[in-house]
Design goal:
Blueprint lengths: L5 H9 L1 H12 L2 H4 L2 H15 L2 H13 L9 H20 L7 H11 L4 H10 L7 H31 L1
Helix pairs in contact: 1-2, 5-6, 6-9, 7-9, 8-9
């Protein structure tokens, strides 16, 4: 039997029947401890938590709204912004909340408010006269992140060349 707290052992010694049950539990396989009833309860709790569409949608919207404002322009922060937005959009689409028309424009507007000044300026330069959609903004941000990453790589290469000269 595994090592047991002395106080517990004292109680178990005083009650041999309790010791029998305790040894049986310690020797059981973890999966045997979980009964079908416990599985049903756990499943119903999961269903209850995740079957509330309104709560799921609100959680997605909250996650989107809580994306931090980009303070310093960098490929990794822009990519994080893209990743979270795409996850939220896909989750909303799975819940039959497609971003089309005005809702897409609102999402694009909110997301632009989270960009740093340089990214906003770059995006504004690319805008046409039509209202932007979230997918157009995400396409721009993907290109922008790649450009920032390429520029960083170029600068590092030039710096390394300078060090070796």
């Amino acid at each position: 039997m595994p090592s047991v707290n002395p106080l517990i052992m004292q109680k178990l010694d005083a009650n041999p029947k309790l010791l029998e049950v305790f040894e049986e539990v310690l020797n059981m396989n973890f999966w045997e401890i979980l009964s079908k009833e416990n599985n049903r309860l756990a499943w119903s709790l999961l269903e209850e938590r995740y079957s509330n569409t309104r709560e799921q949608i609100y959680a997605d919207l909250k996650r989107f709204m809580n994306i931090p404002v980009v303070q310093n322009e960098s490929a990794s922060t822009i990519q994080n912004l893209i990743d979270v937005t795409i996850e939220v959009v896909r989750s909303l689409e799975y819940l039959d909340q497609n971003l089309e028309g005005f809702s897409s424009t609102i999402f694009a507007f909110i997301l632009t408010q989270k960009l740093d000044q340089n990214s906003k300026i770059g995006y504004e330069r690319n805008l046409k006269d039509t209202l932007p959609t979230i997918s157009e903004l995400l396409d721009f941000l993907k290109d922008y992140a790649r450009t920032l990453n390429a520029a960083k790589t170029f600068i590092i290469q030039k710096f390394l060349q300078w060090l070796h000269v």
